[in-house]
Automatic annotation (TrEMBL):
This is Transglutaminase domain protein. Signal peptide: none annotated. It holds the Pfam family Transglut_core. Residues 176-246 form the Transglutaminase-like domain. It comes from Allochromatium vinosum (strain ATCC 17899 / DSM 180 / NBRC 103801 / NCIMB 10441 / D) (Chromatium vinosum). It comes from the Bacteria.
Amino acid sequence: MRYKVQHVTRYDYADPVSLCHSIAHLKPIDTRAQRCLSTSLRVDPWPAVSREHEDFFGNRVSYFSIQQAHRALEVTAVSEVEIMPVPTPPPERTTPWELVLERLYDRGDGLMSDARIFTLPSPQVPLDDEARAFAAVSFTPGRPILEATLDLMTRIHREIEYDPTATTVATPVAEVMRQRRGVCQDFAHIAISGLRGLGLAARYVSGYLETLPPPGQVKLQGADASHAWFSVLVPDHGWIDFDPTNDCIPVEQHITTAIGRDFQDVTPLRGIFYGGGQHDLSVAVDVNRIDEAVG
């Protein structure tokens, strides 16, 4: 399956901005389940400095600096991505989760030991006791790790209400656990906090989800949005993604932009600017299938 993704972010300032420095995680990465065929980033006004680097997690990070006065900033990322689904192993045949803990500390197992950074607390995902207790209900003794994680994902979907007005990007995991409501970012952070609390390796995934209009209706342009989910390292099978917002294992409709310890590592666009006063922010995302028969 091939997709074209367009992500437009626009800031309109009340007063002129004299200088801004920004970094963006808007260019999709290559994974075993996806290949980025092309990608570009357009910034208006034209930046005086622009460059790209790969961060510690393998993400494509764009940096730019605008050194002229401006009242608006628009950043447009356009990418074409091919999704190649990877079969999911039978959940009941995966390694018991306690044995996964042992393998994480086996120095002879490079993939597992390299993942230990994802067992540690991070700026937005501390080791919350309530999140750990919530996860422990699914991780009973001897239970296969994939089976247990699927159960955790379903429980988050069922017991945490999706409410876009309940939280912000800075809402702590502990508060989300208390109020039992949030958005995709919060669902991922809860799962990651709980899994790390048990000693397992879990990481945050940022990207997009193809949304389809109701039957008979036309899809509205700009109506899609960024999405987030989490992944767990399963021995002999690698990282497997889980989307608690939609209670599913991502297959063909999820597009990965970046991975990290939490949202802070993969923020789509952030930076500092001088001046501007108050500002209005608008984001428009389009995820459209490409007709592979064309060309």
